[in-house]
Specification:
alpha+beta, WH_DNA-bd_sf, HTH_ArsR_DNA-bd_dom, Helix-turn-helix transcriptional regulator, Arc Repressor Mutant, subunit A, ArsR-like_HTH, 235 residues, four-stranded antiparallel beta sheet
Length: 235
């Protein structure tokens, strides 16, 4: 990887308006230029200029639907870079204990591209580790154990699905930028979030990356993961 490529990508991410645009899309959503302009607090013309640079730099992709164009991150690798950058440097105590409700909600549970992040995701990961359903396996990887495969099968998640790929690729460790602990990512993390959404355990926010746990979700998390609402805090 050449120095020029690193510096070019770093320059694209470092610009404040572009960084806001990228972070806004970290949940894997696709948004119009107008919506991204409002999120970044700039004019449509300014946003259009920045979006063009992000497209040229390979950080975004665009899809046309009729007269509208929708932008999204170019892939999970871009989200992973952004989340990794966010873990550099300390999370200040002031941020951790902020009374700001949106910030609290983001720390509790949010989308990290195609999987869950935040306190609830850490709790899910720790439950699976404690119960022996996953184990640490090499650098930044988890392996799903035989009991884990059986347990996931009972939940309706088939680890033999070809979409999971090779066993060594089933579950990746993603460093949570607010909690400074690893949560489950990769195909398993994506399937868990899809399942939680399908079962009505969690719901997405229409205005932010945060997600909320429903009453049905708390029942399911307690039954299948041993996670109680009181132990996790507000959600």
């Amino acid at each position: 990887m050449g120095q020029h490529n690193i510096s070019s990508v770093a320059h694209l991410i470092a610009e404040p308006v572009r960084s806001v645009i990228l972070i806004t899309l970290v949940d894997g959503s696709a948004m119009s230029a107008g919506a991204l302009a409002r999120a970044a607090g700039v004019t449509a013309q300014t946003a259009s200029s920045h979006l063009a640079k992000l497209l040229d730099g390979g950080l975004l992709s665009v899809e046309s639907k009729g007269r509208h164009r929708y932008y999204r991150l170019a892939g999970a690798h871009v989200s992973h870079v952004l989340e990794s950058l966010a873990t550099i440097g300390p999370v200040t105590p002031a941020w951790r204990h902020t009374p700001n409700r949106p910030a609290q909600a983001l720390r509790f549970a949010r989308c990290c591209y195609d999987h869950l992040a935040g306190q609830i995701s850490i709790a899910v990961t720790q439950s699976m580790l404690t119960r022996g359903f996953i184990v640490e396996a090499g650098e930044r990887q988890y392996a799903v154990t035989a009991p884990g495969c059986e347990w996931l099968q009972q939940l309706g998640i088939d680890m033999n699905d070809p979409a999971f790929g090779q066993a060594s690729e089933h579950a990746r460790q993603c460093l949570d930028w607010t909690e400074r602990q690893y949560h489950v990512a990769g195909p398993l993390g994506a399937r868990l979030m899809d399942a939680f959404l399908a079962w009505g355990w969690i719901s997405r926010s229409s205005a932010a990356r945060s997600v909320s746990v429903t009453a049905l979700g708390w029942e399911g998390l307690k039954q299948h993961f041993g996670i109680s609402r009181d132990a996790c805090g507000p959600g």
